[in-house]
Amino acid sequence: MKSTLKNMVLVLFSITAIAALLVGLVNNLTKSTIAETEQRNKDLAKLEVLPEFEGEPQLEEKCREIGDFKVNVTIVSADDKVVGYAVEAPSITRGGYGDRIYLMVGFVEEGDNTLISGVKVISQKETPGLGANMTNKGNSLELSVVGKNPTELKFAVKKDGGSFDALTGSTISSRAYANAIETAYAGYLWAKGELPSLEDAKSGATKEHDEAKTNDEPEAQKGELSNE
């Protein structure tokens, strides 16, 4: 009996150890695959938010930290000419209904004007059929900004006196989207050297981040049940 019990324990232990090893391996492979997929999607988005161009793209990457957040700016060139700026930015001071919103925003320069050439949602956890509609091509938020000069925009929904047409039934999500666009524009200006020193910019943004009521967690997690 003792021998049989011992053998059973050894077999069970071996099975458990092998299962744990396999789970660990699968988990590592899955993480790696997810990370590679996310990076590939971001790289594609950098070109999607800019106008089509001929030639092989050259990418110059810059990263600006604002508190706990990062704003990644990619300067895209072809044939030694700047095509535009692709800026990956979060909604720093506005949480969405589910979580922070992350956008890729394109900026192009035409003469003395700067225009928003495109917007791609990189990450969102908003409600399907409501806030998640921000991923739909030609949605009201996208139409509020694409082709517009950011200097002429007020980065808030129209309900709050801004320039953005909110998604139906999704004011909280729309506010976060507007804030992410504003953050992206700040990243573009920083990359152009048109903001104050990086330390001043970080200090000001961090102060706003600390003082904003929506900073620590998305609004919906503060007990707000409606996205309106």
List the domain count as a whole number: 1
What is the helix content?
25-40%
Shape: globular
Gyration radius over CA: 23 Å
**Low-confidence sequence ranges:** 201-217
H/E series: HEEEEEHHH
Round the mean pLDDT to the nearest integer and report it.
83
Number of strands: 5
Secondary structural class = alpha+beta
**Beta-strand percent range:** 15-25%
Through-space gap between termini: 68 Å
Q: Number of helix segments?
A: 4
What tags apply to this protein structure?
228 residues, alpha+beta, 5-stranded antiparallel beta sheet, 4 helices, 39% helix, 21% strand
Explain this structure.
This protein is α+β, with helices and mostly antiparallel strands. The chain has one domain. Helices cover 39% and strands 21% of the residues. It is built from four helices and five strands; from the N terminus they run αβββββααα. The model is unreliable at 201-217 (pLDDT under 50).
